[in-house]
Amino acid sequence: MRTGDGIQHFATSSPSRFAVIVFTLLILLFTALFSLPASAASGKVTPLADALFTAVSTICVTGLSTVDMYTYWSPFGHFLTWIGVNIGAMGVLTLASIMGLVISKRLSLRAKLIAAGDTNPLRAHGGPVNEGQTVRLGEVGQLLMTVALSTLVIEASLTVLIYPALLVAGITPAAALWEAPYYAAMAFTNTGFTPASEGLAPYINQYYFLSVLMLGVFLGQLGFPVILTLFRQRWHLRRWSLHAKLTIITTVLLFVVGGLVFLGLEWDNPATFGPMDAGQSTFQAFFLSAMTRSGGFSTIDIGHLHGSSLLVGTMLMFVGGGSASTAGGIKVTTLAVLALAVWSEAKGRPAVQALGRRIPSDVQRVALSVVAWGATIVALSTITIAQMTQAPIEHVLFDVVSGFATVGLSTGLTAELPDPAVYVLAATMFMGRVGTVTLAAAIAATSRSQLYSLPVERPIVG
User: Fold this and answer.
1) Which helix (H) or strand (E) segment is 352 a member of?
2) Whole-prediction pTM value?
3) Which residues cross the membrane (predicted)?
């Protein structure tokens, strides 16, 4: 009873830390399951490095793999992958809130505050919401239900759209019955695993099928707060939250700019877009732009991209998708807030403004902290893996950022990593998925009221 009471107290008093523990336990559980002989097509025990990496990639909805996902795993292993990405897609705080409900039968006030801070479309900063937002706490249950229902409805709808496309592509009706929901889950969760050894290469001219995948990835990148806002307000643009507006505007802008840049850089590359006509090149460029934002699907060999294109893809991956979404990265709203701060400083404005609203300074500090921590993790991982492998730095950086931002695209380096580098990249994926949650919890935990102010002195900057 004391143990149960202790777990209940910890789950309700510190849900962010509880979320990290839940994620860790899930990874350990799936590592054990992937290690079973029944999970491998060969019927043999999977080595620890491969089982752990696959578990982390699955739970963190990354999509990177050290083995051939199609040929290595048995049907049971593929089922574990499908279950794992859907669990991971629910998000760290949402998962912690659900587990807290299971253990305590209710959400404490603090748990509601933090859950609302992750999913509330009207939130003002990361971590616990302020007093002005506590009026929304009654909607936490509805928000958590929205996460589960939207995942179910969107994946079911994508399955219905994908099934006939697979039949047209020559897949048998029986095989399409499990490939369709598999593709739907991998698209919406922004994971990028495929149920075929050739990946999406056979579908390079199936524009309808690829468009449905882009739609699923786009919905996954928006995030549950934006999905809820769109469902409630629909076309009442003035009622959209600032978070929803910034997410959609930045997402569309990055998609368009990324597509145009890839088209300009790769149009004459004989290993990628060179043999294609203008229409094919344009479509594939925008498909690549969408997938580098966290989707993870690819119709071309990423390792054949020009170095300049790899750098552009690295930048897009680092940004990622929307907050409280299935995508990774530093998030598009983080980029938007920092860009607005730079613009406001250049214009000499006393405060950061956007679309008729003022963005408080604490949001800017959190955005800067997320970028700084993300860049630090990526730099350390890149240096470590580059030293271990002596591989080209652009390939190492691309795969490391792909892991950190839970994208899943690879230059081919990941499959060739030695076991020590596999563990480093697995840790990078884990920190990329739950690192911002830990940061928010640390900021909340160390926040104290200060009843005095120190003297002001301005250091020279720049």
Assistant:
1) strand 352-354
2) 0.84
3) 18-36, 48-67, 79-103, 207-231, 243-265, 315-343, 363-384, 421-445
